[in-house]
Amino acid sequence: MSTDVTQAAAKEAAWPAQRRRRTQENPERLAWTVLIASFTVFMALLIVVPLSIRYGIEVATVKQTAVLDPAQGTTLLYPPGSVEPIAITELRDDITEGSTVEAGDGPTQATVRIINEPDGDQALGSVQIFSGTRLRIDRMRSPMFDLSGSPYQAVLALDQGQARVFTNSGEQRPLAVRIVTPHGDLDLDAGSYQIAVTEEQTDITVSAGEATLTKDDGTPLVVETGRRAWLTGDALAGEALPAAQNLLRNGNFTESMKDTWDSYVVAENVTPGKVSIMERDGRRVAYFVRQGEDNVPTEVGIRQVIGKDVNVYDKLYLQLDIKLLFQSLSGAGYLSSEYPLRVELTYTDVYGKQLTWGHGFYYRDPENENWKIVNGEKVPPFNWYTYRSPDLMELLKETRPAHIDSIRIYASGWNYQSMVSEAFLVAE
After folding, report:
1. For residue 89, what is the domain's CATH number?
2. Which of 232, 205, 210, 245 is closest to 426 using CA atoms?
3. Both 148 and 226 in a single domain?
4. Is residue 40 part of a domain?
């Protein structure tokens, strides 16, 4: 047994000696091995180190702060991780990532300014929010190094409400803004955008620039200037639509009146007027008529609850086709309120006050020179006449509409016959 152990130990001792002899006999192989290994490590470092440095230059960012400027009403700020809000009444320039800004339910407006260039004092982007809007700042970064080719970055979550987003490119680099909504993401180039988020869907109107809409499982949709589109929980809209949006439902009277318009009559102990939907001249019309005792005031009309915020829109137009067939009361009565056809909008202005604006139509001149026509116009009878209002945002700029409450179209006076069709309330 001892002899076997001695022999095994002798063999083990002989192997290192054999390896040393082989190395000594072929030193060139060792040199080439060392040289190739060194060159491989050198080349790897030559490639990896610059790439790592370049990657760091490109992706390294610095956190930025936003500026919150409340303009009207109650603006609440939730700092990161806080469940208790802070009421903001003055400008704050320390809004950090993770903060949430919320506009109160009353008439409220506030602006969040994002990303300033190092040598500039003007923000490259801003978000104007309105009543009932909730905006969270998820990310707001600028590149750490001037050599970086990355843009300024802002990722904002719009959970609900309405916002106007304005973005611009800086002198050093562009600003990339992503708006995250419950229905998908909106990537915005330099431009101007109006965004409205409800529980059912997200709407975007591109006034200038270009927006890309995406969902997790959908193909991106590019929306260009002057167009609008939407996202829902189920799908992304198949195509962009014109930027102009009609706030009225069933303004051409092709659908059932039950779910869109309500009719009403005002007549005290006299023959009332009537309103009905019929087809005339190849179109569906609402026909107002009253034939009864003369010299007694009555009114008949239709009305629709609109309930739309219009803070984010720049323009608002009312358009409708009318035809006057008969009026027994000349002009619009002594109060300029009894027209054979009149349209009236009820709205809440930016100060929270409910107001009305209306426009009437007549064809018989007032017989009494003291009966002045106010907010009305004379039109030719028996012919269809298309009326398009001035821009109501400009016309009513002193009491600018913030919310369109309702609309009514009616005929009033003594005896009358009139028609209306193709009614639109267009917001742009």
Report:
1. 2.60.120.1440
2. 245
3. yes
4. no
